[in-house]
Amino acid sequence: MQNEAINQRYEFVLLFDVENGNPNGDPDAGNLPRIDAETGAGLVTDVCLKRKIRNYVELAKAGEPGYEIYVREGVVLNQLNKEAFEHHPDIEVKEDKDKLEAKKREDQLNLARWMCAKYFDIRAFGAVMTTGVNCGQVRGPVQLGFAKSIDPISPMEATITRMAVTNEKDAEKERTMGRKAFVPYGLYRVEGYVSAPLAQQTGFSKADLELLWTALVQMFEHDRSASRGKMSAQKLVVFEHETALGNAQAHKLFQLVQVRRKPEVSVPRSYQDYEVAVGEAPQGVKIMEIL
Predict the structure, then answer these.
(1) Which of 23, 138, 143, 212 has a C-alpha 20 to 30 A away from that of 191?
(2) Range of the domain at 153
(3) Number of domains in the chain
(4) Per-residue pLDDT, 166
(5) C-alpha distance across the termini of the chain, in Å
């Protein structure tokens, strides 16, 4: 069945790049591109990438049951949690004016299962739903690390001018000057994991997995803005194990994907300035190059 949870382990490597844009600004550093202070490598957080995946799924699956998004802008999460209790009116709850919580362990699990079935991002990434209205804590099967650039990046700033004003009293004043941070070019690599045992707990299915691969490839196509420049997914390599527990260590599989700047290129400015090689898979592991 399409909705059966996956029973194989997966890992993946995604290469994406940015051209004249800021892939993930750091609010603690004036929104400059995130950077490893010791190596100069550019960074993009896992939270940033999960946000883009959520946005793509919400756009691609709008209105379809089972593909709602739990963590989204402007939503009060406790109100969403209450829907689970409303859907299970026979549940006995603990008497506490500040909290709403099921008494029985089985009822607590049923609430969490209902939330997993309703929301794609809970099913995939997990969620902490214990804030007041308690629907439990779910550990998701899909996890990503930070993305890191292959070469050190060179963040730059451009001076910009604001021609319009907000108030009539400012109409005669000199125009406001500002700064815009960007990376001329950077190729980033992110590694991720999909756990079959955790997928069995949340109900993360084969259809969900295919949607995840599509989202990783397409998420930048629907996330355009002036600040982010041109961002593109360039290559997605997936490792599929024969078993739920896996047939090889993840870090050794990641080492099979080698990305090197071409010897004649001193300053990379495009994906074509790099060479990407994928080694042979060990026994029990299948390599799929989706992009």
Answers:
(1) 138
(2) 10-289
(3) 1
(4) 74
(5) 27
